[in-house]
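Dear support,

Our group has been running a series of protein-ligand predictions, and this particular one with glutamine is the one our PI (initials K.S.) wants archived with full inputs and outputs. We had some confusion internally about which version of the output was final, so please treat the block below as the authoritative record. The input we submitted was:
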Amino acid sequence: MAGTLKFSPDDRCNAFITTCAEAPFGEGVLAGTAVAVKDNISTAGIQTTCGSKILEGYVPPYDAHVVELLRRAGAAIVGKTNMDEFGMGSTTETSAFGPTKNPVDLERVPGGSSGGSAAAVAAGLVSMALGSDTGGSIRCPAAFTGIVGLKPTYGRVSRYGLIACANSLEQIGPMARTVEDASRLMSVIAHHDPRDVTMLDRPYDHQPVAGVRGLRIGIPEEFFGEGVDPRVAEKVRDAIGVLEGLGAETVRVSIPGMQYALAAYYVICTSEASSNLARFDGVRYGPAVDTRKSWHEAYQDLRRELLGAEVRRRIMLGTFALSAGYAGDYYTKAQAARRKIQEDFERVLRETDVIAGPTMPTVAFRLGEKTDPVSMYLSDILTAPANLAGIPAISVPCGRVDGLPVGLQIMGRRFEDERVIDAAYTYEQEVRA
Ligand code: GLN
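Confirmed final output from the archive:
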């Protein structure tokens, strides 16, 4: 039965930028289910800011494809979740609307950039949420808040209506408390859409199945190297041990291209972002500019005032990396490194069925703890490779260190999201039992 869901959450984590006090819902597989949507996914009639002052008050005239599908499935879209500005960050602290807090420990960050979606799910304010993942933005907050998050295969979920940060890397994906719910949400959002030309017609329609007998799990040494907290690594090894106990076979593998992953990611991501963000010029979006000034001056003033420091930094880095005379040294090299990483994953995934390791090198940081950009960028070391390779990757909770959640990351072959879901489901069912 269709109806209206009243929604007035106790949002002490600042998970939402916008809430819908009365959220309409329809009939379907998600009838009446409260779903939160990251604030870079267009929702007709509901403010969509990308966590930025430059889009404050912007109300999209149309729905993203995934939002159309949510509505068609009967879901109640109860609000838009907080995020690092334009998805640039791993903590949700770069949001222009204040940081989100981790419901597990309010002094800690929830991860990012989909930190609001993760906090809303972890705090029990909604059953499920959509996030987006360019370099880890679904999996990092899932790991830090102790929920499940899937970055689908590139090309499996339409990006139509997702306000672009880095088109060749990002995918929208499900976040939920259980693998089953994540899979249910994935079944709703993964349908072919000709408006996203990078999509393949490979709809996801799957019920998770437990069982890993004979599954070959690759364990890359690079995922347990320098910078990974040994206590986090131990929890992840224990989790892999659980899968071995159920009949999986582990194989030691190596992804040598990993050493270039972060550098390649940050060149490609900033290059694409600098070009995407050029449209926020105060003419089509943002408050009207002062017309007495020259266009150039007005554009500068507006962007200096309304874009945060991290966004401006990335626009400058990306513009530089693409500029004549330097593109060969940066952008082209980054693409070559990306190719090498893709080939490494393809080779390893010919000998194995999935790859497992930690999602994040550490547990959630304290709010305000990480101040320099490079140490923040380093925290993406284990998540960005799957975006560069375009492969599916899930984070599933696997215990705690100092009371803070740890995520087990399972990656798979392109368009084998089902296998990754099943492996995570098997682990989850085993440890819950
Ligand atoms: N932390 C990464 C970054 O800052 C990932 C962001 C994302 O996936 N949107 O780029």
